[in-house]
Amino acid sequence: MTRVALRGIRAHLVRFLLSLLAVTLGVAFVAGTLSLRTMMGSTFSGIVASSMQADVYVRGSEPAASAAQAGSSAGDVREAIPADLARTLNTVDGVRHALPAVSGPIVLVGADGTAVVSSQAPTFGMALHPDDDTLDIVAGRSPVGAGEIALESATLESSGLTVGDETSVVLAGEVQAVSVVGEVSLGAPMAGATIVFLDVATSNAAYAPEGLVASVDVYGDTGVDEQILVERVGAALAAADAAGVETVTGTAMRTEATADINDMLGFVQTFMLVFAGISLFVGAFIISNTFAMSVQQRMREFALLRAVGASPGQVFASILIQAAVVGLVGSALGIAAGLGLVSLVRMAVAQIGMNLSGSIPLDPATVVISLLVGTLVSIAAAALPARRAALTPPVEAMREAGGARSRSLRLRSIVGSVLTVAGLAGLVAAWSRPDPDGPALLGLGAAGVVVGVLVLAPVIARYSLSAMAAVFVVAVKPLGRLARGNVIRNPRRTANTAGALMIGMALVGAASVLAASATVSTRAIVDDGWIADFSVQSAAGVVPTGVVADLRALDTVDSVDELRYGPAMLAPAAGGTVAERSIIVVALPPAALGHTLDFDAVEGTLAGFAAGQLAVQRSVADDRGWTVGDDVTFTTAAGEASAPIGAIVDTAVIGAPIIMPDDAFERIVPSSQIAIDSLLITSAASATPAEVRDDLTGAAAPYVVLSVLDKEEFAGQLAGQVDQILGILYAMLALSIIIAILGIVNTLALSVIERTREIGLMRAVGLGRMQLAGIITIESILTALFGTVLGMAVGVGIASLMPAVFTGIGLTELAIPWGQLASMLGVAALVGVLAALWPAIHAARLPVLQAVSAD
Amino acid sequence: MTAHTLTSNHPARSLTAPPASVIAYARGLVKTYGTGETEVRALDGIDVDFARGELTAIMGPSGSGKSSLMHCMAGLDTVTAGTVIVDDMNVGRMSQRQLTALRRTRLGFIFQSFNLIPTLTAAENITLPLDIARRPVDRAHFAAIVAAVGLEDRLHHRPSELSGGQQQRVACARALVARPAVVFADEPTGNLDSKSAGDLLRFLRGSVDDLGQTVVMVTHDARAAAYAHRVLFLADGRLVQELTDPTQASVLDVMRSMGDETETEHEHDGARR
């Protein structure tokens, strides 16, 4: 039987080619995702290994509020510890040297006069200890004094600077002229991080003005065991009466850091695997269709096999063997394609300055998983058709013109309706009750509707295709009618074929509605609440403090309001873990209310804001059970501090959960953790907008990373972020559309083979080649349109409910981009035409006589 | 190339113009399949006339070339050598596009089985050639033909809801609806029981007698051939005999005599198609 199965593949190579391609694409995504993950993992492990070489780390004992501080490691941020501890530790037996880890944000100006930034990686400055032997000065020397810096090798390259150049940095909020005196290697690619080395005194002044650092790194003498060193360091700390510190071995620290990174990469991986899943799902459709049709065509062959003594099990197995071969070969090709994909990705990220480790890894796990996934999906997809082949009695298959007996759609109708209705109920519930369960209900409801509609698709196809075909029936006589007959004749197949496109288009539809709504919402938020004339923002995330005074000094500027943020820690009485108690708070000068920013209280009043009352976002208040008049208590370095809630607000102008006046903020947030998010500026009455802008731009220029935005630009910038995310999404979805095209090609090609006699007959009674091609093209377009319309209806429908559910996070308006949706229909029609090309040409070339007398 | 095919390539020299009563004819018609050692000569230089307004049957043992003759006459297959003229048009010299147009305007077809498009109703199947050609349907003519084949109450049924005999009658109606110059029927009763076959043949003969239609029918059934005005007998790609106003008995006689003559040749003949 195996031989029969293998010969079968060879004899019908073209038929299996599309299945093969489908598996290849799906597996390419799986393999690509996995090996990209491995590659990124090994790059970051390399960074961990080369940048965390100490034998023992001394750090704060309890995680503090997590700060979105540039330069912080991927792990949690703990209470800072005194840098002085290093001096104590240096005296411990077996310690070669103990170095306080001093690092923080910095802006480096490159050779072209702009800030050196790579889009995703951090920029930070750190102290270059003269006795730190983990760093290798490959050129020049260590920086001495505030006027000198050294650069990490990759940073030096991407900045375009060379050792000896003069440039400037923005450090501790001030612009400083510096010269590059050295190049430092960390011994591994740093994934695009921009690293500036400073002399110890300079970095201490900038990053540890109060003598507090994140950790002290202890390096042991050669031959001293980590574990022994930890004990000695611990003992020394206890002797020195150092409270709130803990010691960990270098190995433990590195493991922790690696685990953190893996968590983060895991999220990226999940996202990408979702797309791999979609493409495999779609691929399974194609495989299943291919086998279903090839089984139907080869009924007589199976009957013959049965007649000469093959058991149903053997027939079943022979089809599964074919599927397994298709799956294996497709997966193998897919792995190769996946590696190609990864090298493309690597080239792309190298373009934006992110170096990933040299070799593309192909670990056994990736190979095994990819092969298994591809093969199992193929076998599973072929199982149903194989069962049908095995169960058909030989006599029936031997009969003339077997043809597909269409199975009842009743079970499908029932199951699909139940799922769809349940999903709709979930959606309505989510829509009517925008409480914390809303998003979960929405997700479940959406899943129910999507799966339900997929199951119902053949039923829907039967009725809706006639309506959709009406245009063609009237416009292109008699081709439209013939095409309509063909797509309706087997609604199950048409629906399955369109299924791939449906899923892709549902995602595209939902994404474009979300994007349009987000853009409109953003604009509405800015229009409503953003009444400043200009805003100054930083590409580095934090606005240098020095620029504030510079701007206030301008004649054309009336006022400059600082919008600051920082981490705060709720008192333990609030309950929950440390992570649950940490919260980001934003500070506003009370004068800014109604002057540069405008939002209203939904409960209580903002009148007490200036007097130290807090404004809390409604979603947060609901979450934590706070009401107007409650006191919120925070843990601070100086003990507990509390403030009353004056107002519950519901605004998206400020994204933070708690908004407080400046003085309360300064009591609650440690000064080292305060950062300026942006500056809000009003113009002097006498100045024209152009003058103000010129002045602002001029004053901000030395800080390099600052940009001046008016209201329009501010809204545009926010919308631009949405577009960027969408761009990635669209690129991924393009893949599902490509696979969808393959699916349609596949179905059309096989249905042309099935209908050979019919085609021959029509040609014999005078159907021209172009007319025949026209029929097939119309069928293809109808199938594509059906999938697109159904998918977009589902996607747009679900997305339309989102503003109601996600008002709290700033999605306030619903906008449906009709133009964009219409162009998607255009794309669908184009997809239809493209997909029809090959099958139509194939059909038109069939010799009439052979076609008429074909089996 | 033999001298024979040379002359066939220049039909004007060998042609004697047929009388006006002939609607289709072939001169020196040769059809070969394959090349070299596997070459098979299906038609070996045939001269034949088909009279206007007659039902002509083509008979012969399997492999005699009767289907090839019909396919070449109808422009369904290419001609190796010789001339085929149908309704004053040189079928052998036509492009695919011209042949397609010829088939839908001037010719009608009835095949042995699978004659109808399963997705179209009987009425839609009947008017299919006109629809394809985007020509208006002559309602009176349509009604007359439908009445003649007795399908008035089955017009809106799909092929799967019709019996085999009804399906063949729909095919006949389709072949006739465009008033073609010639209807070619390839074993039209091959899959029918004798009652349905009789009905169909009576109708075909009626279309000739009453409507002046020309029909060329390939068959191996002596009973079917007996409905024809004239029967042509083929063997080994040649025209070997001809009967006018045949009866079932006279057809059988000829077949029997042919069987005797060609018995020895049948052995290699059977392997042919």
TrEMBL record, chain A:
Coiled-coil ranges (or none): none
InterPro entries: ABC3_permease_C (IPR003838), Macrolide_Exporter_MacB (IPR050250)
Transmembrane segments: 271-295, 315-345, 365-384, 414-432, 444-476, 497-518, 728-753, 774-801, 821-841
GO cellular component: plasma membrane
Topology with respect to the bilayer: Multi-pass membrane protein
One example GO MF annotation: transmembrane transporter activity
Domain of life: Bacteria
Name of the protein in question: Lysophospholipase
Species assigned in the record: Cryobacterium zongtaii
From TrEMBL, chain B:
Residues covered by the ABC transporter domain: 24-261
Alphabetized SMART domains for the sequence: AAA (SM00382)
DNA damage keyword on record: no
Keyword tags: ATP-binding, Nucleotide-binding, Transport
A GO term from the CC aspect: plasma membrane
GO molecular function: ATP binding; ATP hydrolysis activity; transmembrane transporter activity
Transmembrane among keywords: no
InterPro entries assigned to the protein according to its UniProt record, in alphabetical order: AAA+_ATPase, ABC_transporter-like_ATP-bd, ABC_transpr_LolD-like, MacB-like_ATP-bd, P-loop_NTPase
Protein name according to UniProt: ABC transporter
